Write the structure tokens for this entry.
Amino acid sequence: MFMQGQQLQKGELFMSKVSVFIHGVYPRSTELVKTSREVDRKRKTADDLKKQQEADFVTLQKVQEQAGLDYFEDGKFTWQDIFRPIVEATSGMEVGALTRWYDNNTFYRQPIIKGKLKFNEKKLDGFFKKIPEAKWKVTLPSPFTLAKVTDNTTSATFEKTLLDITDIFVQILEALAVKKVKFVQFNETFITYNQLKKTEIALFNKALTKFKKAKGEMTLALHSYFGDATTLVNGVAGNSAIDVLGVDFLKTPLKSLPKKLPHDIIAGVVDGRNSLMEEKEVIKGFAETAIKHFGDKTIYLSNNSDLDLLPEAVAKEKVKLLGIVRKELVK
């Protein structure tokens, strides 16, 4: 766990802005899990499932509003897995075998490329719940992670796979910009989990430049977790397409990162894989240390990884904790 920092002098905090939000998949309620199983057994209908998904969505919006989060997410209650909406909206891609998501007890269907990729925006629309424009934030899997887990039957080179998938993501960003989404976050897990070499990170860095125009006025973030992000941060720092860099600080020592990066920072300080509650003062102390380290930048306090492995009640308390920390830091 990260270390508590030294107390800031009066007024020093305001050199940086402290904001809070969550990202990724949120845990489904007991009612949603039960309804989903009942639909599979044909005891309930698809309409019953949609109603419960909407109920979970409304509950999450209230949780985020009451906690005072700066951006809201939709929880991904309609997503079968984090890649499925992109696969379903892209002709030339299909779903394959059920595959474990790293070392977690969750799974996804492996994407397979079987032909020329063509994006269909209308097929993607239903996967994004409308949120007030000023608060609307969307988390997507990183194109690099998607490219790495995809079986491309049409090409033998990873670079071609990455470029083709990046082109699809460019169109997704353009579609989200039209919807007036405010903030988009790519979650990159493959690089940090596997501790890839600088050569592959350089390839990803080159692909990221394609998003500079596509993002329009949106804030674009690249967040990483499941491993030490030091090499990744050093590899993409300065890329003008990326406004915010995110780090899992339960895996990455703050002192290993460059000082005063030209990006705002997502600080993954709430553990999405542990039901134990974090200590408020420890998070506050870390935030103060991060402000000293990174200088005049916005620090977004957040979860390190998706919260869906936690019980819903625990996830709710962790969201509330983020809001409390922010209020106490900026009062």
Notes: Residues 12-330 form a domain with the TIM Barrel fold (CATH 3.20.20.210). Confidence is low (pLDDT under 50) at residues 3-11.
